[in-house]
Structure formats: structure tokens, C-alpha cells
Amino acid sequence: MPIEKSLLTGSTTTLILKLLEERDMYGYEMIETLAERSDHTFDFKAGTLYPILHTLEKQALVESYEERAPQDRIRKYYHLTEAGRLRLQEKQREWTSFVTAMEKILKGGAAHAAQ
Amino acid sequence: MLPNDRIAEYCRQAAEQIRWRRARPAVMWELEQHLQDQQETYIRQGYEQEQAARMAIEQMGDAREVGRALDRAHRPQTPWFPLIAVIVLLALGAALQVALTQQMMPLASYAVAAGLFALGYFGDISWLGKHAMELYLGVLIIAAALLIGAEPVAGTAVFHLDPISLHLCYMALLFPLVYGLFLYGMKGLGMRGILFGVLGYLPFALILWLIPTLSGLLIYSASAGVMLAAAIRKSWFGVKLGHPGLQIAAPVLLPVGALAVALLSVGGARLQVFLNPWQDAADAGLIYCRLRDVVAKAAFWGEGNADLSMIPDLSENYALLYGIQEFGLGAFAGLMLLVLAFGAFCIIGAMRQRSMLGTLLVLAAALTVTLQAFVYAYANLGYGLWDTLSFPFLSRGNTALQLDALLVGLMLGAMRTGAWIGDPKQPQRTVRFLRIER
């Protein structure tokens, strides 16, 4: 099911930080992994990814390094810093409280209508 | 248009939107890598190369929109606090020197210094990293040659070549930066790198001891020690020293060793005079007594009651004392607090630099000018145990003024653009080391 763009805005950073919590990745790998894990619900335009990654790097939430890939191509990998890890925890808490509140309203609305 | 040309053209169009030109090549390279990966995926799915390139570009999004978003992420950050502090100090220094010398000539020196500051601030500091070892060896050879050709004047080496007369003690202001570049060249060499780090410190320390400038030796050694500690802490040599004692052993050894050498060079008799100058107030203790007398008669705010006519070389060696007499000890304390805040701000900024080159450059310059200011201040209060190297931007001393301006310009330039200065591409072995340590 396609998701309205505005719903994704603001969550992209959390998704990226979460991916990097597992392991270091390069940009293309992140796009592919996000699409695959979300059953193509999160099919980002790759062009939206790099400005976010570069901003995160500027904020020292991620850092990058270059490494030679198996096909002898040098790739730029991103690594989650300690500050990034803390920001992710904060974002996850924020998201959980948002979802809980949304569910209360949505379920409450249905229950109210049934009465 | 060939598929690869199409991809290159897309990257160029996106990068053109980034106003800060120096950020463009790295961005173009990263986008190109991504597009090639995407193109290969489509080819594996059975598309023709041309069609695969088109689809990869479409998947990336509109080039100009992507470029504009990247432009917002790539803006140099002006380090306002230290920048304003330097501009204020330069203006104060020019006014102070005109007042002290009653001439307009110092303004020409300050104009040149402003030019050198701008050169460092707007220059490409990654050039220094690319030529790190050549610069280290070049400066070492020139410094040794100048020392060999110099003559002793009033207890310190001076190189004469008409119309130039160069006090070699001021080279101490440049050596920490050059030593930082030397450490930069030791990347990934493991324990050998740390050993070379200590050995690479020695030639400049020896030159400073021979000049002799004990203040210079201490400033250089303390700066070198901190830079070595930072390099070890950031695993620059590719090894992690487990025990904290080991991490600080080599860095502490440099300044402590230099302090021991400096104290031994000063000698017991001078130390006694320093501790109690009134016992020999007519001779060796005279200047200490006069300086401490001016400070004792100073007001907290406003003009003091002392007579400065008895103090020699006021504009060069005791510019701060003039400030204490004219404006009070409160103004002096305010100035030193500003210097301390400047130093602390820059040292914190150094540790936040993305690249090791940025960290070392900012540390070298911040430590040099801050220590230089404090050594000068102690001497002005009548507690200096050895020579001084001018107060950055305020006291007279053309060589020091120009070197300080260049150093601080480079430092603020690194802080402005440091988020996007990358260390050179890593050899595979080093990368593996770095990744293991994370």
C-alpha cells in the first residue's frame, strides 16, 4: 500500500540510524535493505538519502570511511557513532509514544462509534 | 549519449547546485558509485545497459532537486566566536602599537598579517596534508640551515641577510604545526608510528634548545605532547593501547622532559632570583622587582600609579604591562579569560574535527597561540622564568605577528570547512585496523 509522503518525512532519519545500528552500510545498500524489509513500502528515491546522510555526518551522528569492495570498487561506508546511537534511542522512544497515542485515538474512535 | 556519460552528466548537474565548490568532487563520486550499483542491478534483471542507466537516474530523482538538498547539507560553518576574537585582537594590537610607538608604521605589518590570515582562512588546507612529509623535511632543513648561519645576539640566535634580520626563536611558533603534519604522515604504522612520533619530535626540540628559546621549547613540547596523545586516542597509528597509562606515557614524556631541560638550563642562581628578586634588586633581580612593582601599583579598573619609564622594550616585551597600567588588572584578567575561552573553544573544536588533518592543525595552532599568550602574560606580571615570544597580535614582533596570523587563519579555515575535509583514501590494511577498533 503506498504511503503518503508526509508520513515518511521525519521518520527517514530514524530508519537510517536503525539500519546503521546493525552494521556499517553504504548508500545503495541502505536503499535496497529498506525496500526489501518493508516489502517495498519504503521505496525511497536515492536522491533523498544522501542529503540526510551528509547532514547526519555533519552532526557527528554517523561517520564515514572508504573501503574496497569485493569487485575492487571503493565504497563509502557509514558507521553509527555513540552520539548517533543515543539519538536513535531518543527517536525510538518518541516514535513509540506517538504510535501508542495514535492507537488510543483510533481504537477509541471505533469503540465510541460502536456504542 | 553513452550510458556512463549520462550518469556523469547527471552527477555534474546535481553537483553544480552545491555552492561550496570544494564539496562537489566527493559528492559526485558518491552519487556516481550509487548510480553504477543501481545500473548493474537493473542489467542483472535483464535490462539493456542504456535502459538500465536511464532507470537508475530516474530512481535517483531530479538532479537539480537532489543538488539543492545537498547544497543545504554542505555549507561551510563560520566559527564566529574565534573569528570575532581574532579580528578584535588584531584591531586592538594595531591601535596599541600605534599608541606605543607613536608611528603609523605598525599598520603596514598588521595589513600583511590580515592578508596572511585570509590566506590561511580561505586556503585549501588539504594541500598541507598531501605534502605533509615534504613540509616537515623542508622546514627542518631550512631551520637547521638558518641556525648554522645565525649569530648570537643578546643570548639568542639571529639570522642576518640584509635587510632581513630574523630572530630564530619565533620558529617555535611554526614547529608544532609542522610536527602535526609529521604525525599525519605516520598513519597506520602501528607501534612504529608512535615511536617515530617521539623521534620526529626531537630534531625541532634540539634546534629550539640550541637557539636557545626555552619558552619556545616548552610551547613546542606541550603542543607536540597533546597532538601525540590525540593521535593515539583516535587510533591514528592503527593500534589501540589498552592501558590508559600507556596512552599518555609518550605524550607526557615530551613536555616533562622539556621542562626538566629548561629548568636545568636556567640554573639554580636564576631560580633563586626568580623566587626572591629583592635579594639582588640592584642587578639580576632588578627587572623582576620593577615589573612586580608596576603590578602592585595597578588599579583594578583604570589608570595605575606606577612609572613605566623604567621598563625597557615596553612595546615588544611588556605590552600587557602597559595595558595593566593604563586600564587596570580587571581589563588584563578579562583579556586572559578571552584567550583561555578562545583556546578551550578551539581545542574542543579540534577533537570534533572529522579528519585527523583537521584535528592536528587546529590543535597545533590553538595550543601554540594560547600557550604563547600565557607565557607572555606571566613574564609581564614579573614571574617569567625564561624568554617570551610576543603576545599574539598585541605586542610588537613582526615575525611572530605574521606567523600567528597564518596559524590562526589555517586553524579557523579548518574549523570552517573541517566537516568535509577527508583524510586520504585508506590502504586496505589500515581500514581493517580502524574498523576492528570501532
The geometry of chain A reads as globular
Report low-confidence residues of chain B grouped into runs of 5 or more.
425-438
Please outline the major beta sheet of chain B: 3 strands, antiparallel
| Element pattern of chain B in H and E | HHHHHHHHEEEHHHHHHHHHHHH
Low-confidence stretches of chain A: none
Name the pair of protein chains with the most residues at their interface, and give those residue counts: A-B, 26 and 31 residues
- Report the oligomer: heterodimer
Report how far the terminal alpha carbons of chain B are from each other: 44 Å
Number of strands of chain B: 3
Cα(first) to Cα(last) distance of chain A is: 31 Å
Q: SSE string of chain A, helix = H, strand = E?
A: HHEHHEEH
Global Rg of chain A: 17 Å
Anisotropy-based shape of chain B = elongated
Global mean pLDDT of chain B = 87
Strand content of chain A: 5-15%
Count of helix runs of chain B: 20
Helix content of chain B: 55-70%
Mean pLDDT of chain A: 84
Radius of gyration of chain B: 26 Å
Could you say which structural class the secondary elements and strand pairing of chain A correspond to? alpha+beta
Mind summarizing the main beta sheet of chain A?
A: 3 strands, antiparallel
How would you characterize this protein structure?
The complex is a heterodimer of chains A (115) and B (438). With 115 residues, chain A is an alpha+beta fold. Chain A is built from five helices and three strands; from the N terminus they run H-H-E-H-H-E-E-H. In chain A, strands 1-3-2 form a three-stranded antiparallel beta sheet. In chain A, helix 2 packs across helix 5. The longest helix of chain A has 33 residues. The mean pLDDT of chain A is 84. Chain B is mainly α and 438 residues long. Chain B is 69% helix and 3% strand. Chain B contains 20 helices and three strands. Chain B has a three-stranded antiparallel beta sheet, with helices on one face. In chain B, a hairpin with a 2-residue loop joins strand 1 and strand 2. In chain B, helix 9 runs antiparallel to helix 18. Chains A and B meet through helix 3, helix 4, strand 2 and strand 3 of A and helix 2, helix 4 and helix 20 of B.
